């Protein structure tokens, strides 16, 4: 599972003991993160242009599982 940290916590994370790292693992604020479906073109490294991360034209279902509460 990835951990998303504030920039000012990066060095703390790298130097921390397991208990401190556990304290740094907090739910990410859901109002600060957007999720959207992108093209499968992103799977090919030969497609190196900004279009690979443009949102697709339809709504993606199941994004509720990414909310923090």
TrEMBL record:
Biased amino acid composition, Basic and acidic residues: 18-33, 48-60
A GO molecular-function annotation: single-stranded DNA binding
Record-level GO BP terms: protein-DNA covalent cross-linking repair
Highest taxon of source: Archaea
Database matches in InterPro entries: SRAP, SRAP-like
One Pfam entry name: SRAP
Region (Disordered), start-end ranges: 1-69
Protein name in UniProt: SOS response-associated peptidase
Species in which this protein is naturally found: Halorubrum tropicale
Organism classification: Archaea, Methanobacteriati, Methanobacteriota, Stenosarchaea group, Halobacteria
